[in-house]
């Protein structure tokens, strides 16, 4: 049986563009390493400087809060130097192609975080930069979020295998795709509860089923809320309208019946001490955002600023969304250190 360090070494120099880039054992190693880094920081107030002044380009075509902060602060904690490029401050994607930009970034930096649109652009960035590239989010996948999510789950329950995670909402967005595949890799039963027209693509389900055959995970894709949430340990939701989309009225009409409220949480039948709620944020759960206020005025059928989750659930003891958000930094540090860091500094004790 390989050690954690051996698994981490096997990821050296590699990009993390989607979950299936790594094996289930490697994904679990990233989760365990993230937990170790978090514990190290709690104990000593700092972590090992695995990055040794490595230079990191943080390229954002989409806006970000948690991902940006996690790469900037996490990179600094690990001893790296970060340069942030926002959606408007460079020639990238306008006067310079992805391939040409990748070659430039590869000459200037040791690693690249890329938050963009098409997964194919991620592939080009990794191919031509010659340095590790980390997918901070694409239209199809959100792999860095997954390490934080399953880290949060493992911290809460002490294990992963055999738990049931149910995603309720837009079942074909990047988070739902990534949860389905990652959970199947790790032996977590994943239920996607969504209207029929918002079920994940067959290719995503097929990939998850392939991993599930080895891990023993059970997959369910259903529009039936009662059936889908029954027996859940984790209820997970996300915003109804993803970045780059504008079809608010359509999503409200489709997903309002799938709002995560206290009645839905009770439908799980799971004891309170074995049930948590998660959300990758931001969340529309109250009237303290301009977007939520405007949505109530603008769209039919929406009588409250509470959209994908009610404020009652969001603020309840079930909620783990802020621990989950904090774990973004530790998990992203794990990914950067495993793929780019000096692992000779790792102490298994």
Automatic annotation (TrEMBL):
Aspartate/ornithine carbamoyltransferase carbamoyl-P binding domain span: 14-155
EC number in record: 2.1.3.3
PROSITE patterns tied to this protein: CARBAMOYLTRANSFERASE
Record GO terms (molecular function): amino acid binding; ornithine carbamoyltransferase activity
Residue positions binding L-ornithine: 174, 238, 242-243
InterPro entries tied to this protein: Asp/Orn_carbamoyltranf_P-bd (IPR006132), Asp/Orn_carbamoylTrfase (IPR006130), Asp/Orn_carbamoylTrfase_sf (IPR036901), Asp_carbamoyltransf_Asp/Orn-bd (IPR006131), Orn/put_carbamltrans (IPR002292), OTCase_ArgI (IPR024904)
Binding site for carbamoyl phosphate: 64-67, 91, 115, 142-145, 280-281, 328
Protein name (database record): Ornithine carbamoyltransferase
Localisation: Cytoplasm
Keywords, alphabetical: Cytoplasm, Transferase
Domain of life from the UniProt record: Bacteria
Gene Ontology annotations of biological process type: citrulline biosynthetic process; L-arginine biosynthetic process via ornithine
SUPFAM superfamilies named in the record: Aspartate/ornithine carbamoyltransferase (SSF53671)
GO cellular component terms, semicolon-separated: cytoplasm
Family the entry assigns: Belongs to the aspartate/ornithine carbamoyltransferase superfamily. OTCase family.
Main localization, broad class: cytoplasm
Catalytic activity reported: carbamoyl phosphate + L-ornithine = L-citrulline + phosphate + H(+)
Domain Aspartate/ornithine carbamoyltransferase Asp/Orn-binding intervals: 161-338
Pfam families, per the entry: OTCace, OTCace_N
């Amino acid at each position: 049986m390989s050690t954690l360090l051996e698994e981490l070494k096997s990821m050296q120099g590699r990009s993390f563009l989607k979950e299936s880039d790594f094996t289930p054992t490697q994904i679990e190693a990233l989760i365990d390493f993230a937990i170790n880094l978090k514990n190290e920081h709690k104990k000593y107030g700092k972590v090992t400087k695995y990055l040794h002044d490595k230079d990191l380009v943080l390229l954002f075509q989409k806006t970000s809060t948690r991902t940006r902060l996690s790469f900037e602060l996490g990179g600094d904690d690990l001893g790296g130097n970060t340069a942030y490029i926002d959606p408007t401050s460079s020639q990238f994607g306008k006067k310079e192609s992805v391939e040409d930009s990748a070659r430039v970034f590869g000459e200037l930096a040791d690693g690249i975080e890329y938050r963009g649109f098409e997964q194919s652009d991620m592939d080009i960035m990794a191919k031509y930069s010659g340095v590790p590239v980390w997918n901070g989010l694409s239209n199809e996948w959100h792999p860095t979020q997954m390490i934080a999510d399953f880290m949060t789950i493992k911290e809460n329950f002490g294990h992963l295998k055999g738990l049931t995670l149910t995603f309720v909402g837009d079942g074909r967005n990047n988070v739902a795709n990534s949860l389905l595949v990652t959970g199947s890799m790790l032996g977590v039963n994943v239920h996607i509860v969504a209207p029929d027209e918002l079920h994940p693509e067959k290719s995503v389900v097929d990939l998850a089923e392939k991993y599930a055959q080895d891990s023993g995970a059970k997959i369910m894709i259903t529009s039936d809320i009662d059936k889908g949430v029954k027996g859940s340990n984790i209820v997970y939701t996300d915003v109804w309208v993803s970045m780059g989309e504008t079809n608010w009225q359509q999503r409200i009409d489709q997903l309002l019946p799938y709002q995560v409220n206290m009645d839905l949480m009770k439908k799980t039948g799971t004891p309170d001490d074995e049930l948590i709620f998660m959300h990758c944020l931001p969340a529309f759960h109250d009237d303290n955002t301009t977007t939520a206020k405007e949505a109530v005025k603008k769209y039919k059928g929406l009588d409250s600023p509470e959209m994908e989750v009610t404020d009652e659930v969001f603020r309840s003891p079930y909620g783990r969304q802020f621990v989950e958000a904090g774990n973004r930094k530790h998990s992203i540090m794990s990914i950067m250190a495993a793929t780019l860091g000096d692992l000779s500094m790792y102490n298994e004790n």
